[in-house]
Structures are given as structure tokens and as C-alpha cells.
Amino acid sequence: MTEHNAGRGGRYTRINRPLKLLGFWIFSSKIEAVRAERTIKRLPPEEKLALLETTSLNELELLCHFS
């Protein structure tokens, strides 16, 4: 985050700097992470914020397997 906000890092984040990290999850494989990212990006903002408030990955895992 520090590098991105300083203007270094990926091209997209050099122009569109992230403000702050709201949350993160750890996945056992890249495939699972990409599937989760795709699913989360499709959610409306209210559901994304609700997902951040969950403490387990159960809801996220269900979303990814059935999307």
C-alpha cells in the first residue's frame, strides 16, 4: 500500500491510488483467490461492506463456489 500511495507499483494504482486497505483474506491457491476477487467485484457496495464485517470465510467460500 505504501508503494502504491507513493506513486510506485502497478500502472493502474499509480494513477488510481488506493486510500486504505479495508480487509483481506488468505487463500490456499491462486485459483481460489481469483475466483473470490471476481465474485467480490460483482457484488453491490452494500454486500461488499457486509462481507468485510464477517469474521469467517464461510460466506465468501459459498459465494465463490456457487457463482
Provide structural commentary.
- The chain is globular.
- The relative contact order is 0.13.
- The protein has helices at residues 2-5, 11-15, 30-42, 45-53, 58-66.
- The mean pLDDT is 76.
- By secondary structure, the chain is mainly α.
- The chain has a domain at 23-67.
- It is built from five helices and no strands.
- α3 packs across α5.
Describe the main β-sheet briefly: none
Radius of gyration: 14 Å
Low-confidence stretches: none
Let me know the number of strands.
0
Average pLDDT: 76
Count of helical regions: 5
Q: Give the overall shape, derived from the CA principal axes.
A: globular
User: Whole-Å distance between the termini?
Assistant: 29 Å
**How does the helix and strand content classify structurally?**
mainly alpha
**Helix fraction bin:** 55-70%
**Beta strand %:** under 5%
Write the layout of secondary structure elements.
Layout: H1 2-5, H2 11-15, H3 30-42, H4 45-53, H5 58-66
Helix pairs in contact: 3-5
Task: Give me some keywords for this one.
mainly alpha; globular; 67 residues; 5 helices
Summarize the structure.
It contains 5 helices and no strands.
